[in-house]
Amino acid sequence: ETGVTQSPTHLIKTRGQQVTLRCSSQSGHNTVSWYQQALGQGPQFIFQYYREEENGRGNFPPRFSGLQFPNYSSELNVNALELDDSALYLCASSRTGSSYNSPLHFGNGTRLTVT
Amino acid sequence: GNSVTQMEGPVTLSEEAFLTINCTYTATGYPSLFWYVQYPGEGLQLLLKATKADDKGSNKGFEATYRKETTSFHLEKGSVQVSDSAVYFCALSYNAGNNRKLIWGLGTSLAVNP
């Protein structure tokens, strides 16, 4: 069983630039969630994708956007990067879109540094 | 609203000591409860879960019991090892309409010394 994989592992960008982070979900999982984790903090929910549509969003501005593809992989795009966007971005997959019993399986994250 | 409160860290223990990390929650309905662990430089891993009152989740020597009467889900381990050094997150999951909501505690850092 292949776990959740994220790429790249590390990234350095300049303020104002755009970035795309990628995630391949665990096999058999059709739901992908993205989280932002600042240093020393817990994860903050960005949004969730199920059947290629966003079906839940946290308190993040529209410059955070995403996609889910037919193979359930996903992208997180962030436009107009700000210094505060520096964080670990975590992707998590699960089996069904609305089941609150199914646990999340996380990738190791992408460490984004904005200078 | 729903919330999770976790004891603040850091927690520092000697190897083979007993561990308790407190987690309490407020929620309407019947949420599921989880403990996740984050080792240095890695993503979060599910440690254990409980989906209804009185359920006990257990894994790798860790245990937590879903106590509805005290709205708690404390994490315990009888004898910690150096390899248990990590950050531990308590989380609550519930359905809000067609969406699943997951609420996280702030995390508790554990350092185990040899």
Strand content of chain B: over 45%
Query: What is the radius of gyration of chain A computed over CA atoms, rounded to a whole number of angstroms?
Result: 13 Å
Q: How would you characterize the largest beta sheet of chain A?
A: 7 strands, mixed
Report how far the terminal alpha carbons of chain B are from each other.
41 Å
- The secondary-structure element order of chain B is EEEEEEEEEEEE
Shape of chain A: globular
Count of runs of 4 or more consecutive helical residues of chain B: 0
Overall pLDDT metric of chain B: 93
- The helix count of chain A comes to 0
Low-confidence residue ranges of chain A? none
Strand content of chain A: over 45%
Most extensive protein-chain contact, per-chain counts: A-B, 24 and 25 residues
Major sheet size, sense and barrel closure of chain B: 6 strands, mixed
Gross morphology of chain B is: globular
Oligomeric composition of the shown chains: heterodimer
Query: Spans of chain B with pLDDT under 50 lasting ≥5 residues?
Result: none
* Head-to-tail CA distance between termini of chain A: 37 Å
